[in-house]
Amino acid sequence: MQKLVLLGGGYGNMRILLRLLPSLPADVEITLVDRTPFHSLKTEFYALAAGTSTDKEIRVAFPEHERLKCVYGEVVRIDREDKKIYLGDGEELSYDQLVIGLGCIDKYHGVPGADEFTYSIQTIAKSRKTFEKVCGLAPGSTVAIIGAGLSGIELASELRESRSDLKIKLFDRSHRILRDFPEKLSEYIKSWFIKHNVDVIAESNITRVEEGRLYNHDEIIEADVIVWTAGVQPVKIVRELDVEKDKFNRPIITDHYHVVGDENVFVVGDCASSQLPPTAQLAEEQGERIVKVLKMRWKGEPLPEKLSEIKMKGFMGSLGKKQGFVHLADTTVTGRIARLMKSGLLWYYKKQNEN
């Protein structure tokens, strides 16, 4: 019996399960390892932290299959030589093929105090803690959000909708929001923040974080809660994996999506090296290609020299529950229609992953 082990129940491995389980070969069994007994919709963690979505709304049950085993625990070691996975409770799992999709954690860029004194939305557990802290604040309190990428933008806007009484400051390192995209989009988001009294601090440089305050260049800014959304890095176990990595400590993957020198270990999602930005869409596309490789190998078919190139379709973002923005195929859509498009995509994703 071939043993396929999937580490992490994120978007990439969920796509692998969705494609493999309906026609899983009789001599293959799959083990999924995750810390939680459900798939978490990471793209919606900002809403959980802001208090506009419930925990249940951003979860999807793992699929069920007679040859799918779900194991819940913390991965502490990956032994490629013996093809074994070690969990924190002492359990050992052997594999023939392994897909590492353990995701990422915040990257603090060496800013003193950032790890200790900021909150996060990188995991569902951390998002819950952020929700408890933010939504327990007294009226008039200040929330500082460091990082004005998609996560920071959505968190700031959703928090404004959740708590109109709070002072919200969004720190952007660039001269304009989403600088790599059309200026029309940046201006739309900027105007929304102005209208809804969210203070965007452009060209910021956070040099230090302390309890209740942060340093932007030489200016000291008081804040009751500081949330970090300014960059990610692979989880520690992946950063320490003995494989060839890129400058961001992500395992370099071949044209067939396995690590260099080991065709039985694949990497998917945020912890895999890529020229494309880490998104759920990228993880799913990588998962599709890993499925193709696995199926061809199991059938004994020769692999193509290269698989089809991944081309990102664009991205969607929300500004509260009523407004949003979409950038697809060099076309930008903003407003209510864009928000409905995002909500529709979320509904469809949950629907196709239901048992």
Automatic annotation (TrEMBL):
<dbReference type="InterPro" id="IPR036188">
    <property type="entry name" value="FAD/NAD-bd_sf"/>
</dbReference>
<keyword id="KW-0274">FAD</keyword>
<dbReference type="InterPro" id="IPR051169">
    <property type="entry name" value="NADH-Q_oxidoreductase"/>
</dbReference>
<keyword id="KW-0285">Flavoprotein</keyword>
<dbReference type="GO" id="GO:0003955">
    <property type="term" value="F:NAD(P)H dehydrogenase (quinone) activity"/>
</dbReference>
<dbReference type="GO" id="GO:0019646">
    <property type="term" value="P:aerobic electron transport chain"/>
</dbReference>
<feature type="domain" description="FAD/NAD(P)-binding">
    <location>
        <begin position="3"/>
        <end position="287"/>
    </location>
</feature>
<comment type="similarity">
    <text>Belongs to the NADH dehydrogenase family.</text>
</comment>
<dbReference type="InterPro" id="IPR023753">
    <property type="entry name" value="FAD/NAD-binding_dom"/>
</dbReference>
<dbReference type="Pfam" id="PF07992">
    <property type="entry name" value="Pyr_redox_2"/>
</dbReference>
<keyword id="KW-0560">Oxidoreductase</keyword>
<protein>
    <submittedName>
        <fullName>NADH dehydrogenase</fullName>
        <ecNumber>1.6.99.3</ecNumber>
    </submittedName>
</protein>
